[in-house]
């Protein structure tokens, strides 16, 4: 605990400044690395990133070797999830228990899209797209959805025929 209190008292080095003058073995360098990844995770939509992807950022951010150890040394700032054999670094302060505290609009859109796709996949696996029941008919009477869709396509062809070019209609080969 003493180490953490001393570490917090160290001078703050901006994650946006050049850190090449810092000795990679010092606590000042480690504090800059924590700041860099704190800022980086704040820029992501989900406030998390895969650990292997973080390793690819070592050179562009001019970070020392084995810089990912800061995630383990600072469990109050970062959380490492090992779900599905994938290590994901998560910014703790961005989450309220298991939910993102402030959801980004793109994240909400992604969740809705995934939900719609999942629902469609489940409906298809249950065979719900094969036959539909017509409203107002007997429960035993079923209509093949393929017939309905072919009628809809022929209706749309009539609507589009108005927009044929004046050069003449060419038949496909």
UniProtKB/TrEMBL annotation:
Any one Gene Ontology MF annotation carried by this entry is:
RNA binding
Skewed-composition ranges (Acidic residues): 154-165
Could you tell me which residues belong to the region Disordered?
133-173
Top-rank taxon: Eukaryota
Q: Where is the PORR domain?
A: 2-120
What name is this protein filed under?
PORR domain-containing protein
């Amino acid at each position: 605990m003493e180490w953490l209190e001393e570490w917090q008292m160290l001078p703050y080095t901006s994650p946006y400044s050049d850190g090449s003058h810092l000795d990679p073995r010092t606590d000042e360098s480690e504090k800059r690395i924590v700041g860099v990844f704190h800022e980086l995770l704040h820029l992501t939509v989900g406030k998390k990133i895969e650990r292997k992807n973080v390793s690819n950022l070592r050179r562009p951010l001019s970070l020392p070797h084995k810089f990912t150890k800061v995630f383990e040394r600072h469990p109050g700032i970062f959380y490492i999830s090992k779900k599905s054999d994938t290590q994901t670094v998560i910014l703790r302060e961005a989450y309220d228990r298991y939910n993102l505290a402030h959801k980004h609009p793109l994240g909400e859109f992604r969740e809705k899209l995934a939900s719609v796709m999942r629902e469609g996949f489940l409906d298809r696996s249950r065979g719900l797209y094969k036959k539909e029941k017509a409203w107002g008919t007997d429960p035993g009477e079923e209509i093949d959805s393929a017939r309905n869709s072919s009628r809809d396509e022929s209706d749309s062809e009539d609507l589009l025929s108005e927009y044929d070019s004046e050069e003449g209609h060419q038949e496909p080969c």
